Backbone:
């Protein structure tokens, strides 16, 4: 699994846990909704600035998001 795909899956999980639509996350993070969609589909990788905005919008730490992505990537390499 590519890192951008893993990030997209994790982002979707965090967004749904927060009970946010893509539109709401975009508003909370100051990013465009289409960009959130591209991230979730693994078609784009976030910049550090975007990651920080997203984590603030979701009220979680960026390190928590990155750790979840790393875990997902490690799970896939073990299978």
Residues:
């Amino acid at each position: 699994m590519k890192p951008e795909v893993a990030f997209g899956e994790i982002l979707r999980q965090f967004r749904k846990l927060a009970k946010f639509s893509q539109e709401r996350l975009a508003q909370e993070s100051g990013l465009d909704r289409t960009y959130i969609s591209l991230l979730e589909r693994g078609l784009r990788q976030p910049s550090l600035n975007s990651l920080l905005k997203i984590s603030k919008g979701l009220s979680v730490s960026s390190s928590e998001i990155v750790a979840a992505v790393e875990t997902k990537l490690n799970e896939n390499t073990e299978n």
